Amino acid sequence: MRVIVIGGGAAGFFAAITSAVKYPNSHTILLEAGKVPLTKVRISGGGRCNVTHHCFDAAQLIQYYPRGSKELRGAFSRFNPGDTIAWFNREGVQLKTEADGRMFPVTNSSETIVECLLKAAEKAKVIIKTQTPVVKVAPGFTVVLKQGEELQCDRLLIATGSSPLGYRWAKDLGHQIEPPVPSLFTFNIRDSRLEGLSGVSVESVSLSLATVGKNRLTQTGPIVITHWGLSGPAVLKLSAWAARLLHQHNYKLSLIINWLPEYPGESLKEELLKLKTSSAKKQVYSHCPFKLPKRLWQRLVETVNIQTERTWAELSNAQLTALCQELKQGTYNISGKGVFKEEFVTCGGVSLSEMDFKTMQSKVCPGLFFAGEVLDIDGVTGGFNFQSAWTTGWIAGQSMGN
Fold first, then answer.
1. Mind listing the domains of the chain with CATH numbers?
2. What is the 3-state secondary structure (H, E, C) of the chain?
3. pLDDT digits (tens, 9 = 90+) for 344-356
């Protein structure tokens, strides 16, 4: 049995290793176009590699995937973050969990993960060919290399991430491609309320996109003000869930910011009214009663034209209402998208309806397998995209040599 894997990323490596270990009599070749494999693994998590997330319940885990959640539920029942941790432990790599659930190697170095995968591939006798770009894949399967060489195989796995070539080969072999668009990106916002506040962060903010209809997309979490607009987990999560919507609107939509989501309904207005008595003589500008950075609070107070010397007792009802509105429903215009280079992700790819998730084999082209981001699967930031790569790679590897 001859197996060829195109793509030397997390999914491709994991599939090749799994297949070669399970079917030692097969001949497994991994083709990588670049000089070195596992590029994304090396740079992810700021060079620390966010391997997975400390979430072992499949029903909960799938909620972190804007696309692919339904199909991944069964897949995660077979190989989940617990299995990922166990696999790396067996290979001599220990992982640690951080406060937000993200998991990294205890060495805090992505090179630990890269070396582990390279050693495991060598031990399993996977033949790795770098600087070997593929130009064509023909039914059968014939893999044509840029150098002109042609390789034949019985099983083919395409794990080319968001490369347009992978989509083209999938289409040539009869697959429907969901149009790829960026996911996981920051927001470009030019607004006087944010100017000069670069670096200011807020622990919990609720962000909503002002869209037509009742199904408003909202995400809550930490944000960071940047010199170009907004970044941080809440922004990245919202960009993932709204990837197609934002693309359709050319990345120009109104963003509603609730700086104090812990105050539901009218409770913030009530809290502000209490301050007129409890903090009567304190200046509104210099006395921030909430968990907000002082510079941000002062900017929001200035925005609603409350003079710096004005005390809480002196605030009119109109000023209180305006301040409450600014804190709960400030509207900012998104003018474009930034790039989250560390973990660049796209939504879109091979249509999931054409995949058998028990084997990761194509339903329309027997012998053809897919794993990782080439599929129309993407997760939010936090190790979820790597986990879907490990899971789909493992399932493909278990099936390819059969």
1. 2-182+342-400 (3.50.50.60), 185-339 (no CATH)
2. CEEEEECCCHHHHHHHHHHHHHCCCCEEEEECCCCCCCHHHHHHHHHCCCCEECCCCHHHHHHHCCECHHHHHHHHHHCCHHHHHHHHHHCCCCEEECCCCEEEECCCCHHHHHHHHHHHHHHCCCEEECCCCEEEEECCCEEEECCCCEEECCEEEECCCCCHHHHHHHHHCCCCEEEEEEECCCEEECCCCCCCCCCCEEEEEEEEECCCCCCCCEEEEEEEECCCEEECHHHHHHHHHCHHHHHHCCCCCEEEEECCCCCCCCHHHHHHHHHHHHCCCCECCCCCCCCCCHHHHHHHHHHCCCCCCCEHHHCCHHHHHHHHHHHHHEEEEEEEECCCHHHCEEEEEECHHHEECCCCEECCCCCEEECHHHECCECCCCCHHHHHHHHHHHHHHHHHCC
3. 688 999 999 999 9
